[in-house]
Amino acid sequence: MGQAAYLSKHHNIESDYRIGFYVSVPEKLRWPVLAIAILAAVVGSQAIITGTFSIIKQCSALGCFPRVKIIHTSSKIHGQIYIPEINWTLMLLCLAITVGFRDTKHMGNASGLAVITVMLVTTCLMSLVIVLCWHQSILFAICFLIFFGSVEALYFSASLIKFLEGAWVPIALSFIFLVVMYVWHYGTLKKYEFDVQNKVSINWILSLGPNLGIVRVRGIGLIHTELVSGIPAIFSHFVTNLPAFHQVVVFLCIKSVPVPHVRPDERFLVGRVGPKEYRLYRCIARYGYRDIHKDDLEFEKDLVCSIAEFIRSEKPQCSLGIEDVECDGKMTVVGTTSSNLDGIRMCEDDGDFSQMAGTSELKELKNPEKLRKRVRFVVPESPRIDTDTREELQELMDAREAGMAFILGHCYVRAKSGSSLMKRLVINLGYDFLRRNSRGPTYALGIPCASTLEVGMIYLV
Predict the structure, then answer these.
(1) What integer is the mean pLDDT of 171-185?
(2) Is the pLDDT of residue 292 over 50?
(3) Which helix (H) or strand (E) covers residue 396, if one does?
């Protein structure tokens, strides 16, 4: 308003169109106004940065933006986050625009179009909120849209006039981000559709028999998957291409939940895949965004103990047989070893087990071999376990002694032959470039390289 009053008195100056904001400020107030303007710029920039972090996080969670590193800076406030890649990108863009324009007028035109566009889009979305969320009449929403939208449309049209004088910058940046989001979302959607359509059915597993049609060797095979239900297509790739597989197979899915911490007694969800004698298990490990992930050795111990506790506490009617697979898919909440004091505990290497609970059960589950690393399950004295459960625990213990192998599947998404040129460009070039330069899935453990098997698979979408 002060600038408008100044222009009303000095509109005859030949260069009046170049009159800046500080020219209109009285000389005695110029320095205080400058200090207030700097503080306002700091507040505005922080709001833009924080809003950008929040939007990128939500887009990434919805599969509309490549995965980036998200750092949660508070254990109490979920939305307080920091994204290094986005922060550096914003800095480079600010420097590029400042150095490229070197003129506050062009930067002002770009900022003006961006601000009025946000206001216009907010008004349009608000009209939808009135109808869909507040359940008001459509007529009321239309009146709201016309009243505020007409004024904002005038400002928007005035900003478009300055398109060639700097206002093209926000539109160009919006188009670039739109292309990136569309390519990533399209590729992610096609990959998910391929996973769903090519999931291995339980009938296929049953047709292979308990040995899965291959040689079952001692050890635990840990297969990482992003599916929380069903058998991933990569497993059939393993079975049909490898001559042997581990006697115990665990489908591990690690999920980050939107809470600061997950209680240790609710860490794992464990279930069985297929009949009992197949020794196929599913485990979902849940972590909060502020949880500290354990090292691989402690995680392995907690994982094996959670499976052993699931075997011990499983109801007899849910012990799947060949004729009954109705319980397949049901999960049981199992805590970590430190949180489940009444559950099964595992001891490795040499140790004095005579003072631990469940000594009678422990002696019956001892492995006679002493030359290699010894593993013992300390089982509570009650209730007594039956022969089948004892045999399954013994086999799990033998497999743990033999070692654990981490099996990772790398998928490469490619467009099918005969696809359109646009689809080939989006999938083979755009999505592949983004996938190679984005962060991989966040696993909650450090996977040792010495015991890792990586198998690639091409997804034709």
Answers:
(1) 94
(2) yes
(3) helix 387-402
State the virtual CA torsion across 452, 400, 393, 208 in degrees, nearest 10: 40
Half-sphere exposure (Cβ direction) of 38: Cα atoms closer than 13 Å: 5
Q: What is the pLDDT of residues 8-58, one digit of tens each?
A: 887 765 655 556 778 888 889 989 999 999 999 899 889 989 999 988 988
Average pLDDT, the chain: 80
Tokens coding 372: 């290699």
Sort residue 26 into left (φ over 0), alpha (ψ -120 to 50) or beta.
Answer: beta
133: DSSP letter: T
Per-residue pLDDT at 415 exceeds 70:
yes
**CA distance linking residue 179 with residue 176, whole number of Å:** 5
Considering only 42-56, 165-179, 207-221, 270-284, which range has the smallest mean pLDDT? 207-221
- Give the Cα-Cα-Cα angle 153, 155, 161 (nearest 5 degrees): 105
DSSP state string for 321-354: -SS--TTTT-EEEE--TTT-TTS-EEEESS---T
Token duo for residue 219: 């050890």
CB crowding 438-452: b at 16 or more within 10 Å, else e = eeeeebbbeeeeeee
Asked if residues 404 and 219 have their Cβ atoms less than 8 Å apart, the reply is: yes
Structure token pair of residue 258 = 């939107």
DSSP label of 210: T
Contacts of 156 (CB under 8 A, 6+ apart): 113, 116, 117, 120
